[in-house]
Description:
- Residues 115-157 are annotated as: Disordered.
- By secondary structure, the protein is an all-alpha fold.
- It has one domain (7-139, 160-206).
- Helices cover 80% and strands 0% of the residues.
- It has helices at 7-20, 30-45, 51-76, 94-142, 152-232.
- Helix 1 packs parallel to helix 4 (94-142) and helix 4 runs antiparallel to helix 5 (152-232).
- It starts with 6 loop residues before the first helix and ends with a helix.
- Mean pLDDT is 82; it is low at 78-89.
Amino acid sequence: MVFRFSNDQDKELLRELIRLKPFAAVRGTTLRVWSDVAASLSSAFGVEVNVKQIRDRLTLLKQSFKDSEAACARGSGIEESVDAVNVQSHYDEREGLVREYVALEDHFKSEKKTVKTKKQQKDEQLAISDGDSSVSRCSTVSGASSRTPRSTPKRVNAFQQEIKRQEKRQRLEFELKEQELRQSQQQFEQRLIFEKERDDQHLRFQERLQKSNQDLIIECAQIFCAAISRKDN
Length: 233
């Protein structure tokens, strides 16, 4: 049987995915995190949903979001980035939650790619250094000498400086982006707390109103019975 997600269920799904962040799960625990998401949503929905249904729905929501973003960009003539929109005003909207999830997922992928790039750059730097050391050792053993200054060390130093410059720039960019995402996450959590308090207050008000109506009905019944009793007497 096909499970059809409602708008509220989509929002609950996205909130749970933002909370557990399955895309950032440690290697070997990804399936367990997705299973935790499925278990939590099954409990919230009152009906069992499995991991495949959740992932398929997430894929559909992300694709719909990207299509909408592309259409907006074409309409305005501006290439709009995920971070260009204030997420805070969309926390109770499905599209805003999709935007928040996509931003977190993209940031994680970008950070992972940067770590890999840094490792490759360091490996290349070590390879160049090892190559220069080998050339130096061979020159010493052979006894060959040259009065012409070597340009390789200068190239290596320039390469190292460029790596450091890029690493510094990337580090500053990621620190800024991490700060923005932490603020967005904090605002999201505060929004959830606010909504819960608002719902609790509304529930308490409804309970008081219901009790007041019940007391009024009882009081009216008592007055009516008393009036009937006096009439009979």
